[in-house]
Amino acid sequence: MSANIFLAPPSIFYGTGAIMEASDKLASLGKKALIVSGKSAVRLDYVKQVTDILEQSNIESVVYDNIDAEPDDGHVSKGVEFYQSNSCDFLIAIGGGSPLDAAKAIGLMLTNSGQISDYMGLGKVKEAIPPLVAIPTTAGTGSEVTQYTIINDISNDVKMLIGSPYLIPKVAIVDPLLTVSVPSGVTAATGIDALTHAIEGYTSIKNQPLTDNLALSAISRIANNLRVACSEGDNQEARTEMILAAMEAGMVINNSSVTLVHGMSRPIGALFHVPHGVSNALLLGECLDYAKEGHLERFSQVAKAMGVSDKGSDLELATAGIEEIKNLCADIGIPDILDLGIDKEEFLAQLDKMANDALASGSPANTYCQPTKSDIIEIYKQLL
């Protein structure tokens, strides 16, 4: 076995009531928090749960709740200004992946010079960010346990992947009760995002034994619970299994990275404003069909974790597993690309840019079956 490093937050509180369990830890991080969220987390009183805990420990806070969509460089600049003008000394992010990603980027720009675009890629962050607490309200991105943030570069129509161990939150608080109010469509999209993380990390050339175990566990949890979480939103068992799976899958990509799906997904999101989980779901089956020949044994293990019968050759199992993934996407209502209102001719006109941006992200290079630009263009065309 080759040497590996496994990165995760120093403290992870998870399970029902995890916020209360973490109260002492929250009180130890600073004197005034900037809480980064969206309007829904405020409306549902999730932010109030946090501010109440802080007040009991005489910790001040201010709320920056403008992150209702996927964050861009403008959101980051405004967040930095708000943090500094209110003399904050630590960050709390509560919401879906967007507020969590925004808080990481705000922290980055508080301690590092230049523009956020200077840090696109991996390993470019030079200084640690202020202490960050990440509290997810969706079971999807796993951002609460990762070193990654995704920020839209508005002027260049690019979703920037920024990665550094400095961006890993100091504390992750993972409470399934915060996901009960998530609508079915969002539950579906974020659930497939988590499934994509687990599968890509397991089939990445950067896989390692610890992430393998977490990946197969996450795939199994999602296969057994995502349909129920979508159809029975108040089913606490399904919600618990899904948020645990999302956290597991987050730790997988934090250490084994993603592959072709994410590389191709980000350009669709940037150019056509498709939610990240949906763009992953659109691509998942086609990308796995392309990649499976690179390591059939691993794809057959994915199939077994999905609940497919273990009888047959690796190729037969891998193929059946991908079909089951496509069935899952259909069962939970993932739309086709043209159902999203995307103009076919405009999509075709952007193929060259999307393929270039996908390759530039670096993620496709982690695929066992290495794609060329023409391969990527052909996969995009298969979505139409």
- Per the principal axes of the C-alpha atoms, what is the gross shape? globular
State the secondary-structure class: alpha/beta
The N- and C-terminal alpha carbons lie at a distance of 43 Å
Low-confidence segments, given as residue ranges, are none
CATH architecture of the largest domain: Up-down Bundle
- Taking all residues together, what is the mean pLDDT? 95
CATH superfamily of the largest domain: Dehydroquinate synthase-like - alpha domain
Total DSSP E strands: 9
Helix proportion range: 40-55%
Q: Which oligomerization state do the chains in this entry correspond to?
A: single chain
Encode the helix/strand succession as letters: EHHEHHEHEHEEEEEHHHHHHHHHH
Number of domains: 2
Structure description:
- A 6-stranded parallel beta sheet has the order 1-9-6-4-2-3, with helices on both faces.
- The mean pLDDT is about 95.
- The longest helix is centred in the middle third of the chain and has 23 residues, at about 210-230.
- It is globular.
- The termini are far apart.
- It has about 375 residues and is α/β, with parallel strands linked by helices.
- Helices cover about 50% and strands about 10% of the residues.
- The chain has helices at about 20, 25, 40-45, 45-55, 75-85, 95-110, 185-200, 210-230, 235-255, 260-270, 275-290, 295-305, 315-330, 345-350, 350-360, 375-380; strands at about 10-15, 30-35, 60-65, 90-95, 120, 130-135, 150-155, 160-165, 170-175.
- Helix 10 (about 260-270) crosses helix 15.
